[in-house]
Hints:
16% helix; elongated; eleven-stranded mixed sheet; 31% strand; single chain; 33 strands
Amino acid sequence: MSHFEFTGAERPIGAGKTVRQIRTLVDLPDTRTDLTHPEGVRNVKAGEVGGWIESKSVVDEFGNLRPRLGGTSWVADEACVYGQARLEDDARIEDNASIYSNAVMSGQTRVRDHARISGHARILGRATVDNHSMTFDDAVVEDDSHITDSAVVCQNSHVAESARIGGNSRIRGSSTVTGGCSVLGLATIEGNAVLKAETIICGTFAIGGEALIESSNHMLVIHPIGPATMFATLFYRTASGLGEVAHRFEQPWLGSLSDFRVEATNFLARLGVADPRRSLWRAQYDALDALATLAERNWQSSVASDRLKTSS
Length: 312
């Protein structure tokens, strides 16, 4: 038996769609007492009016008819659920948040504030998505991870464990952010990058390709260096053990350490011999080269050791 009914109130939401307000028929205790909300713990009482849904059932990706709100899931306040989106288990969407297209929430997930979930995105476990963040495409957010602020998680990306994605950051491509990693500011994680370290990535960094950062020892953050007085320079490990440099010359630049040496030399040559900054920046780039070379040597040794253990 359904745990809710329609109140009779309706409202259009564009694209020819209409959503209908719901009212619970049973008590729905709040099982996420770990979250802070202006109203405190949100135990829903029988007869309480909730948010808005398009229909009582949807067709899933396999063509099966499924309940829009399965288990003890709930839509509160002015939140909306439409398209083929659905909630399962004890999932809740609140405030002015919305979930649509073919997206799914399950477990004890919470979507709040003005957050948007769409596409084929999956919000699983005890994940929390709030503020003005957006999660879409085939992205998966699970475990105790938290997507907040104006962050965007999209494409085939995966956010798990206790990772926190905030600021105006972007998680995209087939990247994975897990462990206790935080990605903030204007940082972008893309490509096949994997971040597992309990560290904070912020600023305007772009980490992509085959980056594999499993501990704080797998990257160097240097600031200031060269003309990048407002931007830190990042040197991080890839899956092969080689490193990549993210630096700002006249424009943001990303490449291997060997390519960085060439680009730094060419950049300094463009300054001209009389430029007083040239000798200082040359010394800074040489120092970065020395540090990065040592780190890369250690990373490659570690990768080779791991391969030997795997093969034996």
